[in-house]
Structures are given as C-alpha cells and as structure tokens.
Amino acid sequence: xxxxxxxxxxxxxxxxxxxxxxxxxxxxxxxxxxxxxxxxxxxxxxxxxxxxxxxxxxxxxxxxxxxxxxxxxxxxxxxxxxxxxxxxxxxxxxxxxxxxxxxxxxxxxxxxxxxxxxxxxxxxxxxxxxxxxxxxxxxxxxxxxxxxxxxxxxxxxxxxxxxxx
Length: 165
Known about the structure:
Elements (H helix, E strand, L loop, with lengths): L6 H6 L20 H21 L13 H12 L21 H22 L9 E3 L3 E3 L1 H24 L1
Antiparallel strand pairs: 1-2
Helix pairs in contact: 2-4, 2-5
C-alpha cells in the first residue's frame, strides 16, 4: 500500500478541532480549505474509479511522453513540487461553496476507494495498467499514488497558510 493512507492526517490534521468557520477562510479569489479538500477528494476518487473501471482491460503499454509531460514528471516526481501556474482540470474544480464536514467525508471516502482499488489490482497490474494524467501522461497506479501524495502536500501547505491568516 502507499502513503495515501497518511494523507488524511496531512490534509485534515490542520483543520482538526477548529471551528467550522475555519473551513471557509481564504483570501479573495482563492479556494477555501473546504474547497481544497473537495478538490483533493475529486482527484483521488476520479483516478481510483478509472483504474477500477479498467481492471479487466488487456495489458496496456505506456504511450510516449511529450517534453511538457517529461518536465512535469521532473517537477512532480523528482522535486516533489508542482510546476508553477497550473490550473486544476474542470473535473476536479470544486464548487464555489463547499461544506467542510461534507468535503472531509468525501475525502475519506475517496481514500478508502483508492485503498480498495490498490488491494484489488496490486501487484498483478503494477506495470500494465495506465490512466492518463492531463499534464504528466500515462501513469501507473503507483505513479498516480505518488502524484496524489505530492498534490495533497502542496494543498496541505495552502490549508495551513489559510488557517494562519
């Protein structure tokens, strides 16, 4: 299993014990902690659902990567950072108003779906099942897990910054 199991602590830990209003704190034009948690839930859920839907597909081979995808992989997997200036894909953009407890429940549910998918598909489909990331190209289950860890840590820093404001 992956470090995704630790993400509930990384992401939700700073919000634990805080008043519900804390979930809605954000500078103008920025996502609130509730929206960030919902965004992460949508991303994890979508990749877990896609891998699960592909579980019966024949073994796949990775498509070639573009220069932009290669650079994105260096930032994400090599440096553990996100390339600057990226905008979330529409499918993972949270609505304007998100309830904190609902986002938390969705995030925990998405992590549980990911864990179930991993139990079902690993190690048998470790090297021959891919889901395309919009900026990194075809990724395996374990590469997606690494992406989600880097992604969640990136957004956890934003949550902590919102709570300090």
